[in-house]
Design brief:
Shape: globular
Distance between the termini: 45 Å
Number of helices: 10
Strand content: under 5%
């Protein structure tokens, strides 16, 4: 359990750093086309690294030497790493979800998912599949708090609803990577709720 927690904390520190994507859009870039171009470059670069580490033993050894401690077993074999999924999720979110819901959805992913994992492993109360109810509430509350902190032009009830949807989709055992499902599902639900 101790190693598992250290492993997850290392992963999630990188994961929470992905908040730089929505925050850079708010405070630095503020242009959707430029943001999409930058994210597209990161996606292409990520796939280049994925192909190198999968098809070339030498590069695979180097990659595992530096990042192996953070990888899950399926990622060490032939699955995409979490970082690649984060860039893909961010790109699709900016393409499909309007501002400011895209920003909130990506913050829910980086902050909410991080706290859900760390609290869920540290205090595993009431198991639901391979997730926990304690992780669910940690993700839900931290998503609300990060959403409120940045004071985006979103009704508080829609923000809370979006945080709930992010937590719900995170705990449901589906095969699609949650770096895709969390921002797309929570962002689209907030957008539809705002229309209604």
């Amino acid at each position: 359990m101790e190693y598992s927690l250290k492993n997850e904390i290392a992963r999630k520190l990188i994961h929470i750093a992905s908040a730089v994507i929505p925050l850079s859009y708010i405070y630095i870039i503020n242009d959707l086309i430029i943001m999409l171009c930058i994210l597209s470059l990161f996606v292409v670069f990520s796939f280049f690294i994925e192909i190198l580490r999968r098809d070339h033993f030498k590069y695979s050894k180097i990659f595992l030497h530096f990042f192996g401690f953070m990888l899950r077993d399926n990622e060490k074999k032939d699955k995409l790493t979490g970082a690649t999924w984060v860039f893909l999720g961010a790109l699709f979110t900016f393409i499909l979800i309007p501002y400011p819901f895209s920003i909130l959805a990506l913050l829910f992913l980086s902050v909410g998912d991080t706290f859900a994992a760390i609290i869920g492993i540290s205090f595993p109360y009431i198991k639901i599949g391979n997730k926990t109810l304690s992780g669910f509430f940690a993700g839900f509350i931290s998503s609300i708090l990060v959403g409120v902190c940045f004071n985006l032009p979103v009704n508080i009830y829609i923000l809370i609803f979006g945080a709930l949807m992010a937590s719900v989709i995170e705990i449901i055992p589906i095969s699609v990577n949650d770096n895709i499902t969390i921002p797309l599902f929570s962002g689209s639900m907030m957008y539809f709720a705002s229309i209604i």
